[in-house]
Amino acid sequence: GKKSLRQKAVDELKHYYNGFHLLWTDTKVAARMVWRLLHGQVLTRRERRRLLRTCADLFRLVPFLVFVIVPFMELLLPVFLKLFPEMLPSTFETESKKEEKQKKKLNAKLELAKFLRETIVEMAKRNKADTG
């Protein structure tokens, strides 16, 4: 059914609360990783990617906080997210946005695979014509 305006507002507040909570948790984990790096330990590839993602999220948080702090500027947030889709930290993304991003990546990979397959077929035809 349709949600009331109050329920939509509560859902948005919960979404942002959960996003900030996840970002705080990621920041604590990243701080431990930096501590380990400073003491000469080596990070795994997975840890390094998580550290980079968390640092990027912290840098993205600065313009995002302007929208949260300035009164009524959050009404412009959808416009800016449309213009700059990567502005929002990754912990604030909804499941639908994540799925949409994965679909785009998959379509790009499929197009690349199709192109490579056609290229190989064309090369095989040329090689066959050259030898035959």
How would you sum up this structure in a few lines?
By secondary structure, this protein is mainly alpha-helical. 78% of the residues lie in helices and 0% in strands.
Describe the structure.
This protein has 132 residues and is mostly helical. It has three domains: 1-41; 44-87, no CATH class; 94-131. The chain contains four helices and no strands. It has helices at residues 5-38, 45-69, 77-83, 95-131. Helix 1 (5-38) crosses helix 2. The longest helix has 37 residues, at 95-131. The protein is flat, with a radius of gyration of 22 Å. The chain starts with a helix and ends with a helix. The mean pLDDT is 87. Pfam families: LETM1_RBD (PF07766). InterPro entries: LETM1-like_RBD (IPR033122), LETM1/MDM38-like (IPR044202). GO terms for molecular function: ribosome binding.
Q: State the share of residues found in helices, binned by percent.
A: over 70%
Rounded to the nearest angstrom, the radius of gyration is 22 Å
- Estimate nothing, just give the exact number of structural domains: 3
Tell me the strand percentage band. Answer: under 5%
Q: Residue ranges: pLDDT <50 for 5 or more in a row?
A: none
- Please report the distance between the alpha carbons of the first and last residues: 68 Å
What structural category characterises the helix and strand content?
A: mainly alpha
Averaging pLDDT over every residue, what do you get? 87
How many DSSP-defined strands?
Answer: 0
- Count of individual helical segments: 4
Largest sheet: none
Helix and strand sequence: HHHH
Give the CA-based shape.
Answer: flat
Protein name: LETM1 protein
Organism: Sitta europaea
Keywords: Membrane, Mitochondrion, Mitochondrion inner membrane, Transmembrane, Transmembrane helix
Membrane topology: Single-pass membrane protein
